[in-house]
TrEMBL record:
Residues 9-218 form the YjeF N-terminal domain. It comes from Exobacillus caeni. (6S)-NADPHX binds at residues 57-61, 131-137, 142, 160, 262, 328, 378, 445. This is Bifunctional NAD(P)H-hydrate repair enzyme. The gene is nnrE. Homotetramer. Catalyzes the dehydration of the S-form of NAD(P)HX at the expense of ADP, which is converted to AMP. Together with NAD(P)HX epimerase, which catalyzes the epimerization of the S- and R-forms, the enzyme allows the repair of both epimers of NAD(P)HX, a damaged form of NAD(P)H that is a result of enzymatic or heat-dependent hydration. Bifunctional enzyme that catalyzes the epimerization of the S- and R-forms of NAD(P)HX and the dehydration of the S-form of NAD(P)HX at the expense of ADP, which is converted to AMP. This allows the repair of both epimers of NAD(P)HX, a damaged form of NAD(P)H that is a result of enzymatic or heat-dependent hydration. AMP binds at residues 415-419, 444. K(+) binds at residues 58, 127, 163. Binds 1 potassium ion per subunit. GO terms for biological process: metabolite repair; nicotinamide nucleotide metabolic process.
């Protein structure tokens, strides 16, 4: 499923009307019927429903929804927020159809007092106020209406996106948008649904098709949700005659006296994800502790100084199919030398954690690198790579991911809620699993290992990464849904959850 910007949606509407022949009035009618089919899964005729209508296309959708629900016996009041003369175009056409069908709306401008008196009596409020057209602050009377709605106990269902949230995820300073329990997004979800704080206003998102043909979406910036169907169709399947070499020989370089567990969690996750043979290279001073924690791995001790790597010496890379570097390796000069040395090699390379810290000093080398490179930054690490604020990264997750991945020719995994996987040619895949239980030390090491394990078995790098991110988040979702809370999940719980998750998945494939 696509994810689109407001500009792409407007352009698709234009193409649908001018080149394909689907008028805005027709699409609005389609939208109303699709929305009502979804609403009837959640509401009953006995409930009192308020539909809040704005001046633009979102308001036009509201008139269609109101007409259909009323014709089916639902108890619906329509409240029109703008002055009567502000409603124009396709929205005005559907307002007139609503009136000719024998129904009458209430106008906020002449019934302001009654609106606030009636509002607490509604059990369902349907938000069709602003849609994707908002720019800047929420103006009066919308700001007052939204503030009142957010204080109600009613179920709030937003159409397309919660009013006050821009399609790109911008939220006005000092103002709060509609806080919806559910959002019915039209045709395709918008990018703002996957960035915070905007995403926190959407509630549960459902998508409805309003009949715009795929041909109308011509943007070369491909953004897709990575969902269960995609995982099922791309997970690697083992040949009965395979052996450990068939599933990848990987080298993990990491660890230090302060962080012995990080590379071991990466190794454990890689093995659980199906890697054939994993070697862990650690500073020699921590080898006994590391080796005791995992029997299945092979080990390569490397020279150390004060508990960390002391130089760029490393095992023969020709023995491996890929290398992962960074988990727990520390920020000393020896660790930096290792990252620099690896950037000079063409072997597939995953850089995580402290490896990303050092990478910021070698971006010119990264740009020249020929081999497959996977970077797995969280927002803070991304901000360091870009020399910008974390806030800027979080507000522009799609843009900064794409720009960086294309410029440096890397696969970029920007972690966080709705992790974005971006390919070197700019395609983007948004993950749909995971929750706040993953906000804990070690989760990133486990994700790096899961990605590493999958990439060792799959020559399609993007699907390997996206599947790993999906599995990592899906396990967290299962844990919280069954035996855990958001507070108590540990990184090792995710590792231990890989077998059951994959077993269930392969049973469904």
């Amino acid at each position: 499923m696509r994810v689109v910007t407001a500009r792409e949606m407007y352009e698709a509407d234009r193409i649908a009307a001018e080149e394909i022949g689907l008028s805005g009035v027709t699409l609005m009618e389609n939208a109303g019927h699709a929305i009502c089919r979804k609403l009837e899964e959640w509401i009953v005729r006995e409930e009192r429903i308020a539909i809040l209508v704005g001046a633009g296309n979102n308001g036009g959708d509201g008139f269609v929804v109101a007409r259909i629900l009323k014709s089916r016996g639902f108890k619906v009041d329509v409240w029109v927020a703008p002055n009567r003369d502000k409603i124009k175009g396709d929205a005005a056409e559907h307002r007139d159809i609503f009136l000719r069908a024998g129904y009458s709306p209430y106008y906020y401008e002449t019934n302001e007092k009654e609106f606030y008196e009636h509002l607490p009596a509604y059990s369902v409020i349907i938000d069709c106020l602003l849609g994707i057209g908002i720019k800047g602050e929420i103006r009066s009377p919308y700001n007052e209406i939204i503030s009142a709605v957010n204080k109600c106990s009613a179920k709030v269902i937003a159409v397309d996106l919660p009013s006050g949230v821009a399609a790109d995820g911008t939220v006005p300073n000092g103002q709060e948008p509609i806080r919806a329990n559910r959002t019915i997004t039209l045709q395709y979800p918008k990018t703002g649904a996957f960035t915070f704080p905007a995403a926190s206003y959407y509630g549960t998102i459902s998508r409805v098709d309003i009949g715009i043909p795929p041909k109308a979406f011509r943007s070369d910036q491909v953004r897709l949700l990575w969902q269960e169907e995609a995982v099922k169709s791309t997970l690697p399947v083992r040949d009965p005659s395979s052996h450990k070499g068939s599933h990848g020989k990987g080298l993990i370089i990491g660890g230090s006296r302060e962080m012995t567990g990080a590379p071991m969690m990466t190794a454990m996750a890689a093995y659980r994800a199906g890697a054939g043979l994993i070697t862990v290279a650690v500073p020699d001073v921590i080898l006994p502790v590391a080796a005791a924690s995992m029997l299945e791995a092979m080990y390569k001790p490397m020279p150390s100084d004060e508990g960390s790597f002391s130089g760029s010496e490393m095992p023969d890379l020709e023995a491996y199919h890929a290398v992962a570097v960074g988990p727990g390796m520390g920020r000393g000069k020896g660790s930096a030398a290792i990252v620099k040395r690896l950037l000079e090699e063409d072997i597939p390379l995953l850089i995580d954690a402290d490896g990303l810290f050092h990478l910021s000093s070698f971006l010119e080398m990264l740009e020249r690198r020929n081999g497959i490179t996977i970077l797995t930054p969280h927002p803070g690490e991304m901000a360091r790579l870009l020399n910008c604020s974390i806030g800027y990264v979080q507000s522009n997750r799609f843009e900064v991911s794409r720009d960086f991945a294309v410029k440096y020719g890397v696969f970029l995994v920007l972690k966080g809620p709705f992790t974005i996987v971006t390919t070197p040619n700019g395609e983007q895949f948004v993950n749909t699993t995971g929750n706040a239980s993953l906000a804990k030390g070690g989760s990133g090491d486990v994700l790096a290992g899961t990605i590493f394990g999958f990439m060792l078995q799959d020559d399609k790098t993007q699907s390997a990464i996206s599947n790993a991110v999906y599995v990592h988040g899906g396990i967290a979702d299962n844990l919280v849904a069954t035996a855990h809370s958001l507070m108590d999940v540990m990184a090792t719980d995710i590792i231990n959850g890989i077998p059951l998750f994959l077993r269930t998945f392969f049973q469904e494939v």
